[in-house]
């Protein structure tokens, strides 16, 4: 009885597999996109990163200046410690500690602000890139487009990243640019 169940189960699995295969489209058009490459090489990504750099450059420069001033105070304290009264040393050390605490807080605030803005802008950028990949895939009649980071193997002819990048570059300079021909089937 047990042997009959195994044979029946195997026959059922084979039948199900053949039915699924028979229903699969024979000319499935699949593409693969390197999302990391789009985030790195697209003009939209480059503009986003440059805008963030410009936005946070003044705050970063202020932090560099504050750090340099603290280092100068620490150097002056070490250099003049021998000639200073104990009260002057205590006062200078307290000012230095307060300055370092202020610097540390400003640095933390800066990092949090920069991370928050970067996350906001990357979310917007990701939406643009996904929409562009979808538009390209529909225009080129792809049945399926996969992100390359989740694929263990794909033939290079399936990679449409360069084509999507070309569309992104064209759309960055001219809003109504035509989509290039697909890389392959």
Note the topology.
Layout: H1 2-23, E1 30-33, H2 35-41, H3 43-80, H4 86-139, E2 144-147, H5 161-173
Helix pairs in contact: 2-3, 3-4
Order of helices and strands: HEHHHEH
Q: Using only CA atoms, what is the Rg?
A: 30 Å
Q: Classify the oligomer.
A: single chain
Tally of separate domains = 1
CATH architecture call: 2-Layer Sandwich
Task: Identify the CATH homologous superfamily.
Answer: Skp domain
Query: Helix proportion of residues, in percent?
Result: over 70%
Provide the CATH topology.
Protein Binding, DinI Protein, Chain A
Low-confidence stretches: 1-23, 175-185
Helix-strand makeup class: mainly alpha
**Percentage of β-strand residues:** under 5%
- Determine the number of helices (DSSP H or I, runs of at least 4 residues): 5
Cα(first) to Cα(last) distance is: 48 Å
Largest sheet: 2 strands, parallel
The whole-number mean of residue pLDDT values reads 82
Overall shape: it is rod-shaped
């Amino acid at each position: 009885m047990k042997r009959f169940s195994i044979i029946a189960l195997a026959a059922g699995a084979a039948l199900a597999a053949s039915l699924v295969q028979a229903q699969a489209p024979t000319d499935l058009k699949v593409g693969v996109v390197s999302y990391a490459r789009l985030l790195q090489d697209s003009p939209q990504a480059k503009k986003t990163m440059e805008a963030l750099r410009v936005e946070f450059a003044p705050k970063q420069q202020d932090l560099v200046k504050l750090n340099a001033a603290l280092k100068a105070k620490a150097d002056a304290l070490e250099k003049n410690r021998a000639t200073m009264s104990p009260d002057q040393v205590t006062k200078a050390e307290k000012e230095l500690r307060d300055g370092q605490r202020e610097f540390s807080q400003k640095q933390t605030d800066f990092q949090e602000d920069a991370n928050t803005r970067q996350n906001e802008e990357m979310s917007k950028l990701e939406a643009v890139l996904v929409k562009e990949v979808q538009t390209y895939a529909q225009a080129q009649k792809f049945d399926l487009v996969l992100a390359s980071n989740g694929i263990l193997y794909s033939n290079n002819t399936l990679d449409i990243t360069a084509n999507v990048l070309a569309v992104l570059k064209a759309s960055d300079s001219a809003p109504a640019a035509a989509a290039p021909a697909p890389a392959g089937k």
